[in-house]
Every structure is written in C-alpha cells, then in structure tokens.
C-alpha cells in the first residue's frame, strides 16, 4: 500500500515531491516578483531586494579582496590619478551624478589579465594590462563609462536577484526529477538543472553588457568625450581575442564585432540617452 503523500502521479513521479517542488517554485517567484522598483536612470522595472546603501556596503567590503586578486593597486601615482580623474569626469557630466552611488575608480597592478569590472555601489577597476592597451584618454573613458553603466543600471544586484530565482526553480526541478532509488538520476538532474540555470543567467549577462555599452556611449557624450572611442576599445579587445575567443553563445559578453555594430547604432541614437 502506498502511503499518503507518496502516491504516484502521471509518469510515476511521487506526488509528495512534486507538491514540494511546486511550493518551492511558487515561493521563489513570489520572492522575486514581490520586490519591484523603477530604475531612475534606465526607467526599467527591476526586481531587486537590495537597497543602494546595501550595494555600496557590499562593494566597499569586497574591494580589498578584489584588489589582492589583481596584484593590488598600481604603484604609478600619475596613472592612478588619471584613472580617477577620467572616472570623476564621467560621473559629474552624466546622470550617474544623480544616483546615490559612491563612485571610486582604481587602476590595478595586474599586467597579465586584460579586464575591467565594477562592484555593486560604485567601486570600479581597470587592470594595467588593459590600461596599457588604451593610448587615448577617450578609450579609457570608454571602458570606465561602460563599467559606470553597470553600476547605474544595478546589474550586480539584478544578477543576484535573478540567481536566487534561478536557484529556486532549478532546485525544484532537481527535487521533482530525482529518484532516491536511483542516485544516478539525481546526478543527471542536478547537472541538467545547473546547465539550464547557467544558460539563463548568461543570457541576462549578455543583455547587461549591451546595456552597459549603450549607457557608456551616453555617459561619454555627456562628459565631452568622443563616443567613437568606445568602438576603438572594442577593436582593441577584438585584436586581443584573435581567432581563439570563446563563441558568443557560450560567453557572458557579446563578441567585440557584434558590440561594435550595436555601439554604432547607439551613437546614431544619442538623442535617446537618459537625462
């Protein structure tokens, strides 16, 4: 006799596990969609459960660890000041100045890793390896404008909220599909759920990168830089990537070639920039 709560539904899946999985999905959806705010710069409705103050605190707390991972701050005081001045010009000349974020720009000493990134709340970094590839101030401004766009659009906080939702849904899928009497099926379900979750979040990430490019173009224009310098940044990245870059459909960033096309379109539509 099958006990109550463990009877089989269609396809042989125990209804107890299905019911619990359904509850997990519903609670994850309620948690995500129950929080809603409109971004004052992008005008997008976002489902973020963090306040700007919490983003700022998180970014400041994570800054020492991020610096240590990339060899610490660069010792060249002149270049360090140059990065800070370019960043400050971007903020003061754009809608970023009206946000509550505490922007700070850092040049990292890493000479091997070509990278730039932003932490929640306004801590922004560029590595020496990338900085040295950008001969003009406008190109540096293109990179910093892009990263400033990530902060203003609250992409980190948005990704955290979406990751929580994805984890809840994929966890429910594993729970529903896993057969305790067949451990192999549990492993397969877990791997499939992880892959699905990864692909979902990668899609969001590519969208975020495109939006950061668009905002970066706008911020460059606002600050008095030539937005065409953003295209030159992409050309530098394309040259560095060569022919062995990761295919776009499996990457968190759109390919430089595709980004150039989008940036050219953004430059043609500067009248649509946020004010």
Q: Helices and strands in order, then pairings?
A:
Layout (H helix, E strand, L loop, with lengths): L14 H19 L3 E2 L6 E2 L5 H18 L7 H16 L11 E5 L7 E3 L4 E5 H4 L5 H16 L2 H23 L5 H40 L5 H14 L14 H13 L7
Parallel strand pairs: 3-5
Antiparallel strand pairs: 1-2, 4-5
Helix pairs in contact: 1-6, 3-5, 5-7, 5-8, 6-7, 7-9, 8-9
Structure overview:
With 275 residues, the protein is mainly α. It is built from nine helices and five strands. A hairpin with a 4-residue loop joins strand 4 (116-118) and strand 5.
Briefly summarize what is shown:
With 275 residues, this protein is mainly α. Helices cover 59% and strands 6% of the residues.
How much helix is in the residues? Answer: 55-70%
Oligomer: single chain
Low-confidence segments: 1-15, 189-193, 195-202
Which series of helices and strands comes N to C?
A: HEEHHEEEHHHHHH
């Amino acid at each position: 006799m099958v006990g109550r709560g463990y009877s089989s539904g269609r396809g042989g899946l125990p209804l107890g596990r299905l019911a619990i999985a359904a509850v997990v999905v519903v609670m994850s959806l309620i948690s995500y969609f129950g929080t809603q705010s409109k971004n004052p710069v992008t005008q997008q409705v976002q489902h973020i459960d963090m306040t700007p103050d919490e983003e700022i605190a998180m970014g400041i707390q994570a800054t020492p660890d991020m610096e240590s991972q990339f060899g610490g701050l660069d010792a060249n005081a002149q270049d360090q000041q140059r990065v800070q001045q370019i960043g400050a010009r971007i903020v003061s000349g754009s809608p970023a100045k009206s946000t509550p974020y505490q922007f700070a720009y850092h040049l990292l000493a890493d000479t091997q890793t070509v990278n730039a990134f932003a932490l929640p709340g306004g801590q922004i970094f560029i590595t020496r390896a990338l900085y040295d590839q950008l001969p003009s101030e406008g190109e540096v401004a293109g990179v910093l404008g892009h990263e400033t766009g990530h902060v203003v659009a609250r992409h980190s906080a948005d990704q955290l909220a979406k990751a929580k939702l994805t984890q809840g849904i994929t966890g429910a899928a594993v729970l529903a599909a896993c057969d305790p009497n067949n451990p192999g099926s549990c492993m397969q379900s877990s791997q499939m759920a992880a892959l699905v979750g990864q692909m979902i979040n990668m899609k969001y990430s590519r969208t975020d990168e495109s939006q950061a490019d668009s905002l970066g173009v706008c911020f460059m224009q606002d600050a008095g830089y030539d937005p065409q310098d953003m295209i030159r940044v992409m050309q530098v990245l394309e040259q560095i990537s060569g022919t062995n870059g990761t295919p776009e459909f499996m990457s968190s960033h759109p390919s430089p070639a595709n980004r150039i096309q989008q940036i050219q379109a953004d430059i043609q539509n500067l009248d649509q920039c946020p004010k």
